[in-house]
Design goal:
The complex is a heterodimer of chains A (631) and B (651).
Chain A lengths: L28 E6 L2 E6 L4 H7 L23 E6 L2 E6 L10 E3 L3 H16 L15 H8 L23 E3 L9 H9 L5 E4 L6 E4 L15 H5 L5 E3 L3 H9 L4 E6 L3 H4 L13 H11 L3 E4 H20 L7 E2 L4 H10 L13 H17 L6 E7 L3 H6 L5 E2 L2 E2 L3 E4 H10 L21 H4 L6 H15 L17 E8 L2 E9 L1 H12 L6 E5 L26 H15 L9 H11 L5 H7 L23 H5 L5
Parallel strand pairs in A: 1-5, 10-11, 10-13, 12-19, 13-16, 18-19
Antiparallel strand pairs in A: 1-2, 3-4, 3-5, 6-9, 7-8, 14-15, 17-18
Helix pairs in contact in A: 9-11, 9-15
Chain B lengths: L5 H18 L9 E6 L2 H5 L2 H14 L6 E6 L11 E4 L3 E3 L7 H10 L9 E2 L6 E2 L6 H4 L17 H6 L4 H9 L2 H11 L11 H9 L7 E6 L8 H8 L1 H15 L3 E7 L3 H16 L15 E7 L8 H8 L23 E5 H13 L1 H4 L10 E8 L5 E6 L4 H8 L9 E6 L5 E4 L9 H6 L8 E6 L4 H15 L5 H18 L5 H17 L3 H5 L2 H9 L1 H10 L11 E5 L9 H5 L5 E2 L7 E2 L9 H5 L5 E5 L1 H6 L12 H6 L1
Parallel strand pairs in B: 1-2, 7-8, 7-10, 8-9, 11-15
Antiparallel strand pairs in B: 1-3, 3-4, 5-6, 11-12, 13-14, 13-15, 16-19, 17-18
Helix pairs in contact in B: 7-11, 8-9, 10-12, 11-14, 18-19, 18-22, 19-20, 20-22
The chains are: A alpha/beta (631), B alpha/beta (651).
């Protein structure tokens, strides 16, 4: 009978859709005493949440609200008085109850908290000045605010090989503090389960199975773990140096494109509040860095909409499988290749916009401007680590050229701007270059969940009715609910469309498809919130911005919405440059040239790709691995 | 047969009772000789299985199968003298019986009708041999309540358990009592959890019963992981049905229909017996659907642990049962609220369950009259270390350490001085001689800085170095840390490193302060019991044997002569006869010499294995303080804990 037992996850696991608080929910209020102040909190909150709500800061490291509430790091310890005895409790998991008395800065708390951080530091490669997360590191901040000047306890340190055999994410176990936020976000939000704890005691590491590199496990490269990591243990694979080299090479013609969401997130790296639109400064900064042409991926987003809308109509006519699944998110594509290979035929064959961009630059632009395509270097500024993977895919090229040569994340671009000593806030706004610099509003909203589908529907409506009807208001396609469904009227036909973001939610949707539910058009983004929440976006770890919740993604998405609303052109097929491109070069959507340049195919990858025993070599964890039998 | 009522149980009992009565000393004219052979792990490892098979063959060869019967039993507790063989009638108690002794035993005792003197227990102090258990000092101060069936019944035969009134309590509960009544009984009995912390068992049952969520689960914690502890193993091997019965009662009381026994895979005999017991209970209708014709269903299944100490912690155990990594989680919520698969779960230890059947059979009034004011009943301890009679014992709560160590245990061998006793395993502490007359219960042990734990007791004499003991236990705790929380994962590592520094003669006086401070911080900050108690061996040895630490640090000397790095082996040139045996024995080739000249030991090469000491026919090799360190005195080294130059550089 025990075989039938149903596994219900523990108490703090919630679906991605509930990452964001529901303000309408009525909650009971309770009163408790924190540091001799009476504060009000919601019933069910932890002491940490209650304290932060009241403006009392308690340092924490392993805590990620609603995602990782495990009380592992013991940095958020507070003294709790129960029946006269004071005990130390991890405030992130200790429930705030009515009448509770809590001390957050008693001498005992301060002493033990300091010891905890000292212990963490004693097992951490403290190369702060050369670390990618220098000045944006939660461990650094906590150590600083506790005033640690000297480590009392020192001893053996790990010396494990840094894993960087893949083009997207670098894992340095020697900087890992075992907060397990990467594991939590990967298993509870994305539901990929790449990371878990291996070995025990001091040798514990948080790693893919058998200590494999990420390229050998079913990692979708989304980079949510990079966002979750409080230190420099998980980072994107930087390729800034290669871009500098290209820029410094007088023979190279370096073309840059920026993804739609970069204009609403880059500012955060320079002190702008979340949701600031910095499109003009972004273009100016790229010119200062020395790029020969500054274009926008928004343009090819419009192009992708044209292609995809036609593809939808074609499939609705019976040519091709339904539902049509979007393919602009490389994390999602990799997810499908690993876990849902039976749906690869449903994926739109369209390349993602930045790959379309690369392909066009090396053909259309090269011809138009009379440049040898061999001399063209395409750099893409992306909110994403999976784009680095995508650019390295063998399918993504035309003949002998890679479509995109280098992918930089938002963070890497910010670093380049700092390296060039450009004062970003003081830059005068500039325009993007023509012809691939202009976009409709539809191109802009690609950057947040639901945007691709809305953009495609806008165009498909026009294509079927042939009228420039009023822009329908697709309210139900917006917002951050994990799964959104709607019915869209296309001419006389009712289409069932659905949107999922975060692969945890994608799984739910795909299981419904498997169970036989009918949809016509489905948009899936791998990251919660879409590209505005991408794994290449700014990380909130510095002293000024230590908010670890994911709520700021709202602001970024709102900013994209404002850009869209402010445009006069809001439908992709209205973009005159796109129309000219078809006229001059591509012919027609889904035509022969498009098929060759702008479309691709997919590869089933399995759940254990390239799996082999014998992962990390190093002083500790290696020992058990060395004894593993070879298979 | 399917047992449906108390009458059915009585029928089974009647069938088996004569056998049992004879084993308890009744001369009931059965016309049958019963030979009991212990089949617990300790006796098993000294070939008791071979003894049993040999016995059966020998009896068959002599045509004695009709009037004799060879019976497997659980542990007698007298493990030092195993394998144990007991012959009834007569209750003749034979010790250390080898397969080669069987023929003589059969000839002399069974055919000749004479006791085989040679195999009787020999009391070293009186010089006499004794025939029966009652005459052996080891058993005299004991009171076997929980272990009453161990060494009496065949654990692989459910009928024998029923003949000892087994399953009557369950029948009574299921047929005649309501759950509140039973829980009230357990509460009134004063029974406290035997797993270590001593939480009142009745209260735990009440909390779990009060939850409204279904299904609920009952879990038996049989993940006995302390080094040197084997109480639970002996109960499971010797009396598995008592645990099954108690778990079923628990299921009835809290409203659960499924139970799990989480047992170490390293206990193969216990696992085998449990599997058999569950099967037999199912066949008898004592597990499964509709027990005793009521609508109460209860079934059990086993889950195996893979030897992680931390899985004895209840939340880690739950994770492991569910197939997840064995790691604790913060409480609240307690397992009684959210346990297996998020459902209310009652977790008790093996010995606690074994006590439940006692309470139900003897009544709570009787039970609460046993033991001390705060700790009721008896406690099983496993005795090990520097003591004559190692083995398994059961004494009433409140027995003094002196009684246990010197009466039951027979004292320290080799005329050595008692130094300390370690209780509670890696979570406990060392108790010095001044507390020998302390009546032990949960509270008194805690006051000494140790704890009851699951009941391991390791005796140490003057040849044990307390710093080394602390290092040993800490090494265990650090190795078994699950790696989740910072203080346990990193803190115990750093603590261990300080201890190693001290045992290697590189300690500083500040290290002692650091040891203490870090110990307190780890205790305060750790997530689960493992980390919270891991520093106990350090704190208790620091408290009672601080001078030993100081000697290690200041004089670079290990008074007990244990810490290898502080030792120096030299050849006494006067005594040496240049026989060369020491040089041959030396694996490190550290000893050199020539004929007719005294041999020399190169301290650089010497690994301090002491193999030469054992070989020397003239006791010419001496153990002493290391010269080079001794010369440096207290000023030695720049090993202050504040970090060496290399670490500073990376800061």
């Amino acid at each position: 009978m025990e075989e039938k037992l149903e596994y219900t996850p523990g108490p703090v696991i919630r679906k991605t859709g509930q990452l964001y608080d529901n303000p309408e929910k009525e909650v009971e209020k309770i009163k408790l005493t924190i540091d001799c102040r009476e504060v009000t909190a919601d019933k069910g909150m932890s002491v940490l949440e209650a304290a932060r709500l009241a403006g009392i800061e308690i340092p924490s490291l392993c805590y990620l609200r609603h995602i990782n509430e495990t009380g592992s790091c013991r940095v958020c310890l507070v003294e709790v008085e129960v029946k006269g005895t004071k005990t130390l409790q991890a405030s992130c998991v200790y429930p705030a109850t009515a009448g509770l008395v809590v001390h957050t800065t008693s001498p005992r708390v301060r002493r033990v908290r300091k010891t905890m951080v000292e212990l963490l530091l004693s097992d951490h490669h403290r190369e702060c000045t050369t670390c990618i997360r220098n000045l944006n590191c939660e461990l650094q901040n906590v150590a600083d605010s506790l005033g640690i000047r000297n480590l009392k306890y020192t001893g053996e340190m790990k010396a494990l090989q840094v894993q960087n055999d893949n083009p997207y994410i670098v894992r340095d176990y020697n900087k890992c503090i075992k907060c397990r936020r990467c594991e939590a976000i990967c298993s509870k939000v994305q539901e990929i389960n790449v990371y878990s704890a291996l070995y025990r005691n001091y040798d514990t590491i948080i790693a893919p199975a058998f200590g494999q590199d990420l390229s050998r496990v079913a990692c979708i490269a989304c980079g949510q773990c990079v966002l979750a990591c409080p230190t420099g243990s998980i980072t994107e694979k930087e390729c800034i140096e290669s871009v500098w080299e290209a820029l410094e090479d007088p023979d190279k013609y370096v073309v840059v494109q920026t993804a739609p969401s970069i204009q609403v997130t880059l500012g955060e790296e320079f002190g702008f509040p979340a949701g600031s639109v910095v499109t003009g400064k972004l273009a100016a900064a790229l010119r200062r860095l020395g790029f020969d042409r500054v274009f926008a991926t928004d343009f090819t987003a419009d192009l992708a909409v044209m292609e995809e809308a036609h593809e939808l109509l074609e499939r609705l006519e019976g040519r091709g499988k339904l539902p049509l699944l979007t393919s602009c998110c490389p994390g999602w594509v990799k997810f499908a290749e690993h876990f849902y290979p039976e749906y690869l035929d449903n994926l739109s064959t369209c390349k993602s916009p930045h790959e379309m961009f690369g392909a066009l630059t090396k053909t259309y632009i090269a011809r138009k401007e009379g440049i040898d395509p061999e001399k063209i270097v395409v750099v893409a500024i992306m909110p994403c680590t999976a784009k680095k993977f995508e650019a390295a895919r063998p399918e993504m090229g035309t003949g002998e050229f890679k479509d995109v040569d280098w992918v930089l994340t938002t963070r890497e671009l910010a670093r380049m701007i700092r390296q060039a000593d450009i004062s970003f806030p003081d830059l005068q706004e500039e325009e993007y270059d023509s012809p691939m610099g202009t976009a409709s509003g539809a191109g802009a909203i690609f950057g947040s969940t639901g945007g691709v589908l809305e953009a495609a529907v806008r165009t498909a409506c026009h294509l079927t009715t042939g009228k420039e009807a009023d822009l329908p208001d697709y309210e139900e396609l917006r917002g951050f609910s994990g799964l959104k469904e709607a019915e869209v009227l296309l001419k006389d036909r009712k289409l069932k469309v659905a949107i999922a973001h975060g692969t945890g939610n994608a799984r739910v949707l795909l299981e419904r498809l498997r169970a036989g539910e009918t949809f016509h058009f489905v948009e899936i983004m791998a990251c919660p919130g879409g590209c505005v929440g991408g794994g290449g976006q700014p990380i909130y770890g510095s002293r000024e911005r230590k908010e670890v919740s994911l709520d700021y993604r709202h602001n970024r998405a709102d900013a994209l919405g404002r850009i869209d609303a402010a445009k006069t052109l809001r439908r992709s097929h209205e973009n005159p440059d796109v129309l000219r491109l078809y006229k001059e070069f591509l012919g027609q959507p889904l035509g022969e040239v498009s098929r060759n340049l702008l479309h691709t195919c997919y590869t089933p990858r399995g759940k254990l790709p390239g799996f082999q025993f014998g992962g990390i070599k190093g002083s500790h964890a290696g020992h058990a691995l060395d004894n593993m039998p070879d298979t | 047969m399917i047992i449906k009522s108390i009458e059915d149980l009585k029928e089974v009992k009647e069938k088996y009772e004569p056998l049992i009565k004879q084993r308890l000393g009744h001369r009931n004219g059965l016309g049958l000789t019963q030979i009991l052979v212990c089949s617990g792990t300790a006796c098993h490892s000294s070939e008791s299985r071979e003894v049993r098979l040999e016995l059966e063959q020998e009896l068959a060869r002599r045509g004695l199968e009709e009037q004799t019967r060879v019976v497997k039993t659980g542990c007698f507790g007298f493990c030092e003298y195993g394998p144990i063989v007991m012959v009834h009638p007569g209750e003749i108690f034979y010790c250390q019986v080898r397969p080669g002794d069987v023929r003589e035993l059969v000839e002399k005792h069974l055919i000749g009708g004479q006791v085989l003197e040679r195999l009787l227990y020999h009391n070293d102090s009186t010089g006499k041999r004794t025939q029966t258990i009652e005459d052996i000092h080891f058993f005299q101060a004991q009171r076997r309540i929980v272990l009453r069936n161990c060494g009496v019944i065949n654990p692989e035969e459910i009928g024998e358990y029923i003949a000892r009134d087994g399953y009557f309590a369950l029948a009574d509960v299921v047929l005649h009592k309501n759950r509140e009544e039973v829980i009230e009984m357990i509460k009134k009995s004063g029974l406290r959890g035997r797993g270590g912390a001593g939480f009142p068992t009745g209260r735990k049952w009440e909390l779990t019963a009060a939850q409204d969520i279904r299904p609920k689960y009952v879990v038996c914690n049989a993940d006995e992981g302390d080094p040197g502890a084997f109480m639970d193993r002996s109960i499971l091997e010797g009396d598995p049905h008592s645990v099954l019965e108690a778990m079923t009662v628990a299921g009835y009381c809290i409203g659960a229909n499924q139970g799990f026994i989480y047992v170490r895979a390293e206990y193969p005999i216990a696992v085998e017996r449990l599997e058999l017991a569950i099967e037999q209970a199912r066949e008898a209708g004592l597990l499964g659907k509709g027990l005793f014709g009521t609508d109460f269903d209860f079934d059990l299944s086993l889950r195996f642990g893979a030897g992680a100490f931390v899985c004895g912690e209840e939340t880690a155990l739950l994770h492991s049962v569910m197939g997840q990594r064995g790691e604790p989680r913060p409480r609240p919520p307690y397992p009684a609220q959210e346990g297996l698969w998020g459902k209310p779960t009652l977790i008790n230890n093996v010995e606690t369950f074994a006590n439940i059947t006692v309470v139900l059979r003897e009544g709570w009034e009787w039970y609460q009259g046993q033991g001390t004011s705060t700790s009721k009943g008896s406690k099983v301890f496993s005795l090990a270390g520097k003591i004559y009679n190692t083995g398994l014992i059961e004494v009433p709560m409140g027995t003094t350490l002196r009684t246990i160590i010197f009466d039951i245990g027979g004292g320290i061998p080799g005329n050595r001085q008692f130094k300390a006793v370690q209780t509670g395993g890696p979570s406990g502490g060392c108790i010095p001689a001044k507390y020998l007359d302390l009546p032990i219960d949960y509270e008194s042990l805690k006051e000494t800085g140790s704890m009851m734990g699951s009941g391991g007791m390791i005796v140490m004499d003057e040849g044990d170095c307390m710093v080394d003991i602390a290092r040993f236990y800490l090494e265990f705790s650090q190795d078994e840390s699950c790696g989740r929380c910072t203080p346990c994962r990193v803190g115990t590592k750093r603590l261990l490193e300080i201890l190693i520094r001290i045992t290697e003669g590189q300690g500083e006086m500040e290290d002692l302060e650091m040891l203490e401070e870090l110990s307190y911080d780890i205790r305060d900050a750790s997530l689960c019991g493992l980390g919270q108690t891991a520093p106990n061996p350090v704190l208790s040895t620091l408290r009672y044997f601080r001078n030993e630490y100081v000697t290690h640090v200041r004089d670079k000397r290990c008074p007990a002569g244990v810490c290898k790095a502080l030792l120096h082996y030299t050849v006494d040139e006067e005594k040496c006869i240049a026989c060369g045996l020491c040089a041959k024995a030396c694996a490190a080739q550290a000893i050199t010499g020539a004929p007719k000249q005294p041999y020399r030991i190169d301290p650089e090469k010497c690994t301090r294995c002491a193999a030469c000491v054992a070989k020397c026919p003239r006791q010419a090799i001496q153990k002493g303080i290391r010269k080079d360190v001794a010369d440096l005195g207290g000023e030695a080294g720049i090993y202050a804990g504040a970090g060496d130059t290399e670490n500073r550089a990376t800061l």
